[in-house]
Amino acid sequence: MNSLATLAELTLAQRRELLKMAVARGLVGDRSELPPIERAPRDERLPLSFAQQRLWFLEQLEALGSAYHIHKALRLRGELDRAALVRALDGVVARHEALRTTFTQVNGIPEQRIAPAEAGGFHLVEHDLSAEANAEAELDRIVVEEARAPFDLERGPLIRGRLVRVAADDHVLLLTMHHIVSDGWSLGVFFDEISALYAAHREGREAELPGLPV
Description:
The protein is α+β, with helices and mostly antiparallel strands. It contains five helices and six strands. The strands form two sheets. Strands 1-6-5-4 form a four-stranded mixed sheet, with helices on one face. Strands 2-3 form a two-stranded antiparallel sheet. Strand 2 (101-106) and strand 3 (109-114) form a beta hairpin. Helix 3 (82-95) packs across helix 5. The radius of gyration is 19 Å and the shape is globular.
């Protein structure tokens, strides 16, 4: 690997193998020696982690801009099943509470709010550039606009995307998440699960995704 930025490009199996190598070389601790993570009650206030507190505080100062946006552009060649893609995106948001989390203040103290899975799916905006003479230039403009657009930590959502149709067999999926709910490693998991759900919906079967212990 040339840089840490390539971690998000690895498959789930490759990331697990990389973690095993790091543990064997003493670069990271063995997670099997740590106590299991216990699920916090959902009927009590959910405080922010230390990292989330830092990002939340900087956001209040309007000091972040797009510096902590995680964004990815994925070119999709060939026939696209739009309905299957939308269902896959909705399914991942329903599966992961972090992607349905927003941040509010109670008596001046920030806390997490998790929307129910049925509250809404993935926020996807669509653009059709197939009739544009300068489609690639307009695509570049949309990519920059999407990456820079601000998030509202209190209102959410903190994950969003755009589907750009360049031609009948050429689409670009733009994905943006705020770092307060995700990271580069999670982006790889996101695309692994999107791929599995998309393939399953296209074939009319249930996706076989492992249960989430946390």
